[in-house]
Amino acid sequence: MQHHLIKSAMYFQILLFSNFRKMTSQLQETLLLLSTGHLFGLDNPNQVATALAIPSANLYRHLKDFSLYQWKSLLMRIGCAVALAEIQDAESKSASTQSRRITLSVDDTNDPRYGKLLSYRYKWWSKKHNNTISGRNVLGITIKIGSMIIPLNMRIVSKQGRGNTDKLSCFVAMLKAVLDFFDTSGVDLRKYPITFDSWYGSYNLVESLSDMGFDNILIHGKSNYVMDIDNKTAKLSAHKKQIQLRQKQWGCSKLSYRTKATSRTFGSFVLLFFLDMAKSEQCWCLATPYGRVKYSEYGLNITV
C-alpha cells in the first residue's frame, strides 16, 4: 500500500512539475495534496482539509492562482498521459488486436445545474424529466482501449453557440490539442476510427476531419437521412425495408448488413445496418469515405 501511494504521488508530482513550471510552489503542493487525497476517497478540498484538520480556506486561496486555461490543460494532459501508456502497450500487440481495442469517440451530455450564477447555463427539454430543466452542456473526446474508456479532453460549451463557440468549432480546437500532444509523443491517433452520434453528421465535420488526416470516420445515422443505394434514392427508413439483415457477418454477433451508398451531405461512404437488440429496432451507422472500417463496439471489422 505504501509503495502504491508513493508511486502515485510521484506520478502526479512529475506531471505537475514538468508541464506547469510557472505555477507557485504552494499551488503545486496543493494540487499534489488533492491528487493524493483521491487515493483515500477524498474528492474535494473540503474533505481533504477536514481529514488533515487544516483550514479549507488555505487550499481554496492557492487554487485561485490556477487559471481556467491551466485547469483545462491539466485535465487534458492527465487523460492523454494515461491513454498514451495504454496505446503504446496496445500497439506492441498484433494489428488485429489493435483494430478491436482502440476507438476514439466524441459526444456531449447535458449536466443538470440549478445555480443561477453559473456560466453556460441554459434551458433544454429533458426526456428523462419530461420537463424543461436548467444545466450545462459538456463536450468530451474519449478513447476506448479494450474495456477502458479514458477522457482525453472535456469542455463546457454553449448548447447553441455562435461564431467560433459552436460545438463543431470547439470540437475541432479540442481535437487539435489532443493530436498535438500525441504527435509530440510519437503516437498517431489518426489511424484509429473516430465515432459520432447523428447530431454531428455534416459535410463540414467530415471535411474538417479529413483535413486533419482521419479516414476512418463513423457517424450514427438518422432514419430521415436521404441516401442513394443501388441507384435508388430514399430515406433510410425506406431503405431498411428492402434489405435483409444477416447473421455472423465479420465476426459480429448482431444481425447486420453492409452496402455502399452516397448522399449530398456525406458523399460516398459505407453504410452499415444493424439490429439493436436493446431497442428492438434497426439502427444505422455510416462511415466515410470508402476505406477500412472498424467499429469495435459492435465487433465490426470490414475491408471494402
Largest sheet: 9 strands, mixed
Radius of gyration: 22 Å
Helical content (DSSP H or I, runs of 4+): 25-40%
Determine the mean pLDDT: 77
Spans where pLDDT lies below 50 across 5 or more residues: 290-304
Question: N-to-C SSE series?
Answer: HHHHHHEEEEHEHEEEHEEEEE
Strand content: 25-35%
What would the principal axes of the Cα set say about the shape?
A: globular
Straight-line N-to-C gap = 51 Å
Number of strands: 13
Class per helix and strand makeup: alpha+beta
Give an overview of the whole structure.
This protein has 304 residues and is of the alpha+beta class. The protein is built from nine helices and 13 strands. The chain has helices at 2-19, 25-37, 45-52, 56-63, 68-91, 95-101, 167-184, 203-212, 236-239; strands at 102-112, 122-126, 131-145, 148-157, 194-196, 217-221, 226-229, 232-235, 256-263, 267-276, 281-288, 292-295, 300-303. Strands 1, 2, 3, 4, 5, 6, 9, 10 and 11 form a nine-stranded mixed sheet that branches. It is globular. 22% of the residues are buried. The model is unreliable at 290-304 (pLDDT under 50).
Detail the topology: elements first, then pairings.
Blueprint: H1 2-19, H2 25-37, H3 45-52, H4 56-63, H5 68-91, H6 95-101, E1 102-112, E2 122-126, E3 131-145, E4 148-157, H7 167-184, E5 194-196, H8 203-212, E6 217-221, E7 226-229, E8 232-235, H9 236-239, E9 256-263, E10 267-276, E11 281-288, E12 292-295, E13 300-303
Parallel strand pairs: 1-5, 5-6
Antiparallel strand pairs: 1-3, 2-3, 3-4, 6-11, 7-8, 9-10, 10-11, 12-13
